[in-house]
Design a protein that fits this description.
The complex is a heterodimer of chains A (187) and B (378). With 187 residues, chain A is an alpha/beta fold. Chain A has a single domain, classed as 3-Layer(aba) Sandwich (Pyruvate-ferredoxin Oxidoreductase, domain 3), CATH 3.40.920. In chain A, 40% of the residues lie in helices and 25% in strands. Chain A is globular. The two termini of chain A are 28 Å apart. Chain B folds into two domains: 6-189, Thiamin diphosphate (ThDP)-binding fold, Pyr/PP domains (Rossmann fold), CATH 3.40.50.970; 269-377, Rossmann fold (3-Layer(aba) Sandwich). In chain B, 39% of the residues lie in helices and 21% in strands.
Chain lengths: 187, 378
Amino acid sequence: MEYREFRLTGSGGQGLILAGIILAEAALLEGKNVVQSQSYGPEARGGASKAEVIISDSFINYPKIDKCDILLALTQKAYDKYIDTLKDNGVLIVDNGISLNNNINNINVFSIPILNTASEKIGTPMVANMIALGSIQAVTDIVKMESLEKAVLSRVPKGTEELNRRALNEGVGLINNRKGTLNYETC
Amino acid sequence: MADNNVVLMQGNEACVEGALIAGMKFYAGYPITPSTEIAEISASKLPKIGGKFIQMEDEIASISAVIGASLAGNKAMTATSGPGFSLKQEGIGYAIIAEVPCVIVNVQRGGPSTGLPTSPAQGDIMQARWGTHGEHSIIALCPSTVKEVLDVTIRAFNLSEKYRTPVIILMDEVVGHMREKVELPNPSKIEIYNRKKPTSSPDDYMPYKVKDGDIVPEMPSIGEGYRYHVTGLVHDEYGFPTNDSSIAEKLITRLVEKIESNLDDIVEYEEYRLADADEAIIAYGSTARSAKSAINLLREKGRKIGLFRPITIWPSPKQQIEILAKKVKRISVIEMNLGQYYLEIDRIAGKYTNVTKYGSVNGELISPDEIISFIEED
């Protein structure tokens, strides 16, 4: 039985809730069961914020996540706050600006330039969430790329389709290019 | 691949979707977390179908506007959370005695007072039952999935129209804010109940007389030519105030009985893995989801345990709970309060079986692990 728990973390304004919704919709397109939720409250404004997605092939009863299989962290603050919620042998995808100073034994780490690729290569920090989604797809293969692309295109504002599609592919590239040149950085 | 009718939807969004399918034409409210999306989405959708959305100055004005809109012939709804629900009690009582159909949504959060605005709770169970003063009955429904929010909202409108009474939808922050898969129903296949209008001439019309074979009086819309006096006072069949004790006795009894003597129609519930169970959990809303997870894990350990989940919280499923109580050696009531529905279950089941309770008021959804520990410890 497939049952995978994703926690997407960063700061308010990075579009992580939208990323969570898009990931959930992509899974839905493939006929899977999903639950998406997010933290509401003071910490969602400026501080660490999070979106959660559960993807399963059967009905999801308990809708919350305790320990996650995949943790995305886009800020140091979010990383520090949520790193302990990742399961043993879980997957950590972090922006490479984050210093991994915690105990991260038995975790698969992908430290990649998500924020830098968004602002420097594509030219807007707003697409960091799409780059992150692309990298999540490339690492986990949880949904097909075409489902993810379809979900992205149905959610983003008109006129930004090409930009977002490009960001998604950059995210995939950040993972795949690593695979060619480096072994998985397993600590 | 999924078809086009399958969408990812938030609980609060599904509430509006259901209301629109049921025929909602009017929404008045004062936004409050965690119910705000219901107001936002109503505001965006109602004008497009010729409906009206009004943001009122407060919650009392909102329920009053909803009552007025309903009297004018519109299906009307308001949504709120704890603090606003307290304020709306006055209007709920008015809608009960004046027999005005309307739907009140309470997306529960931690209380009392401002409490925990962004966290779930189930602390308004007894307030839904007895929040407004005076002898009365009430219908309150409690959905546990996003799809069920949609179904229950349609049902709330139907019941309010059929029984001419306010119907409360008791959601909680978890169900209101989570997104999950919803298969949108084909609206043409859904049964919609509309209030019965008078067939007699305006001259013969008696606004509060129940015709033989009917459950409630016929209800014209104000402005259709029927003389119609509406009051919160005890009234006779003409709708005019009276202190006559026999009329008062008859009216209040009728208002209670129109609900309490139609439990077969009003009560809805789910039984989960109960067929061979020798112990049971009773839980509702989002807590029931945790209970199902816990039950599946406890079953793996060999315990014969199942869930009874009331969807109609009020009136309570007395008959079904009594049957369950005679069958199992223990019933555990799990809820995000310190034992509100437990009081009702113990009242019904306590003489037949051991009734225990587990609750929390920390603003977190009770987890399956907590439930398992409780069941195994006791």
